[in-house]
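[Automated response] Your request has been received and processed.

Submitted sequence:
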Amino acid sequence: MHQHDVTELLHRWRGGEHEVLREIVSLLYEPLRSLAHQRLRRAPLEDSLNTTGLVHEAYLRFVDVAGVSSDSREHFLALGSRVMRGVLVDHARARVAAKRGGGIPVVELHEDTWIAQVDIDRVTELDEALSRLEELDERQARMVEQRYFGGLSLEEIARAMDVSLATVKRDLRSARAWLAADLRGSAR
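Generated structure:
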């Protein structure tokens, strides 16, 4: 796969050629599958989704976001992280609804933690906190999403968001601190 091929297809997709999405996903299927596998491997309580299922659900949701700004492989994988976040959060909400909620402990977000390492039922709590962060600082929220739901490296986030590596590190540190305080506050 050549970066040029993906970039050209992404420009066509953004321009309204919805049929090229299949080609894009085909070219990036392995990175998307690897991303999904890494995340689900750490989610022992998530038995309703497998790697293929998560990628396929994400693909179906990509159809709904056709034409969004995505200029590179990194941008597309960042978009993939957002879409996968939605899939995982929806599954977590369905599980919580099935159990009728109650007594869900607080999630703490650490540099080496991805959300699937904790009980999947707590994903909804983090999602709500992330939505509140997004109202205050959309860039920080996107970085958290790309790092923890999408598994992008710090360097990939920097390229996808067109900022420096130092900015990514600083924003993620700030976002983690804000989320930790928000999650502690919501536990009261």
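Summary generated for your ticket: The radius of gyration is 16 Å. Residues 73-99 form the longest helix (27 residues).
If you did not submit this request, please reply to this message.
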